[in-house]
Design a protein that fits this description.
With 126 residues, the chain is mainly α. 86% of the residues lie in helices and 0% in strands. The protein has one domain: 3 helical TM bundles of succinate and fumarate reductases (Up-down Bundle). The termini are far apart.
Amino acid sequence: MAVSILHRISGDGLAIAGALMFLWWLGALAAGPDAYAAFVACVWHDPSPEIGLFHQITNILGKVVLVGLTWAFFQHLFSGLRHFVLDTGAGYELKTNKLWSMLVMVGAILATTATWLYIAKEALNG
């Protein structure tokens, strides 16, 4: 039941938050370099000490949203794969279904962690 609820929540989160972030990004691109720099400062780059508290807070919140979207992507992906296997008629045994449900949740967390560790490593090297 938890995997089914998380599947719906992650799908809605990807659709709503992902679309809003994408539209904000497109709007910032269309508005010019200053708007795009403000977008990037809100969601990615570490804030420099000379900027205000508001920008530091939005920077942290932007990263939380990006990590959340990454988790939602992997949760929805792995849950969809689980449902795909169930549609073939396999995996309905209680023990098997419970195992795959746990693997979906743990896999989403591990994949999100691995993705962000890779991004952090690349950001430090670049």
